[in-house]
Prior knowledge:
alpha+beta, 20-stranded antiparallel β-sheet, 20 strands, globular
Amino acid sequence: MQRTIRTFPIDQMDDFKQHVFVWSQQFETIAWLDSNNYKQEYAAFDSALTVNEFTSIKTDYFQAFDKLKEYQSITKDYIFGYISYDVKNDVEELSSHNLDELGFSDLYFFQPQKLIFIKDNLVEFQYLKMVEDEIENDFQEIQKSETLRFEKSPSEIKIKLRIHKDEYHSKIAKVIDHIKRGDIYEANFCQEFYAENAVINPFEVYTHLNEISTPPFASFLKIDEQYLLSASPERYLKKEGNKIISQPIKGTAKRLISPIDDEKIASDLSRDEKERAENVMIVDLVRNDLSKTAKIGSVHVEELCKVYSFKQVHQMISTVVSEVEPTMHPVEIIRSTFPMGSMTGAPKVSAMKIIETLEETKRGLYSGAVGYFTPENDFDFNVVIRSILYDQEKKYISYSVGGAITAKSVPENEYEECLLKAKAMKHVLVNSNET
């Protein structure tokens, strides 16, 4: 579908980004993707804002990929949205019967009426013809928007644990038993933290979460009364022409105040046998997944176990790439790799079956993927981790964290790693009423 494109130079881009995010609050449907200017090789833009559905698809997991394939093929335009973890049930003979207090749809994408890309010092408006006459006025309105100012949240947020510490230890022991029996090599076990009767300003909470994390794959979704506030550091899958890029994360260490100590803990992470083993297992899984759609001999590892530093943590990231035929449908590439190995374990199907029996809640959008397709059949998706999910009508907040369990895992250490990963989410929620 044809769009009208207008480009404007911007002097103070950081201020403009704040203004455009404030301006977006008036819309019922919003997708905001932000790289936080993190320097990375594979980046199409710095930020993107999309608002207002023209068309959309919302479905449960049954035949979800077939429906998405049809929708993406017919639309032939930019579409933004998410694929929840439970769409795994469409890929394999799996099911999900755990508790789900949020009730997000399993898959949702929309074709936006208004699309704004930010890169370097330029902002590009891409509007459907039906609203093209609003570009100039919207640009002026955005520039006049106030900077972010929020009122105090009216209620105190009380975070609860779905799985308490002793029970967590017991469940990890069961995972390790499965590993020792040879059922699996590794499993990503997740637990939910939640708050009931909670009232927050999602824009405020996302802003604070993003400020303390500044991750390369941050995203904010608003779909009526449901919100995703994500500070994800991880790319799931990107298609750039005929090249496919996957960048799984496995291996985490906390940041330290002293530069010398901080450098040492990053160096220790890079040499940690357990963390490297976790990462290499997932790299092997990703290589296998990519080979399903790749040209023969095109799958290779560009980077293995490289440590990248973020505000809150150091992360060990690998980059695996492949090449596909031009005729390969983009949705088929995602279907053949979903869900991402970094959030399941290996072998993938066996790990998913085991963690389904041990986890207490449905993952839903957590450990799914948020991203977009282009009119040229390219795409880019993150992994939904370090994220808060909020249903405004139900007043329910949820955030989950997980870790890779291997034969060498120590339950206490795994528990502490979960708390480290949850730290930023808890901080912004508990302190949101003090703004």
